[in-house]
Amino acid sequence: xxxxxIFTAPSAQVVEISTGTARLEKVAGEPDSYVLHxxxxxxxxxxxxxxxxxxxEYLDWMARIIEATLPAGTVRAxxxxxxxxxxxxxxxxxxxxxxxxxxxxxxxLIDYVRTWFDLPRSPALALRAGDGAEEIAGFRDDTADAxxxxxxxxxxxxxxxxxxEFYAExxxxxxxxxxxxxxxxxxxxxxxLRDELDAAASAFPHLAAASESGVLKGRRRGNVVVAASARPxxxxxxxxxxxTAPTMAAWLTGETLAxxxxx
Length: 263
Fold this sequence. Notes:
This protein is an alpha/beta fold.
């Protein structure tokens, strides 16, 4: 097996991109770890020598949900919101032979990310510039194992990626046992999360949410992972793997989730 090339990104850099600015910061005390900020929002954490490493807690939760939900082997995944492609790198490392597409609204950011990081090449990982709400319509029916939505405009999700129409397109593209995951910013009042779950419910019969207990109880702001599928999710297995994560997360479904959201 050929030795993997190790890229060396700059220790710090601020660049202009199509949507504003991108800032690359080296993690103190780490030889090759970086955090990518897009318009001052931390968007990816990358360790060049260890693509399977996921330092952002919500990305670790997503990876665990994928591992527990989708059968072992290769996956066909679509990422809406590419940033540094941390999750795509991890899936490529953990499931060699997978085919992934990462879509980002900012073509200049994609160019920088290609330069800075050791990204898998197409067809292992194809990078595409475009609006995710429009690009998803170009994928064929029943072809994706997973769709991951992790796209932001500054600190909020673009409204076009939160509609019932968007969710319907994702449901169309996913295989019958496919998995949809979304990173939802929760401010503590659960308003955005409730709207997101309502939109997801219009296209998927099985829903769940995962996050730290304090976030789900409305005590503080944080990231919530929304999971959706046309088929039942393995709730017991998912609850177990999320409780053993470095940052423990609760897995909520059905009446328990509704009660936590004040419904």
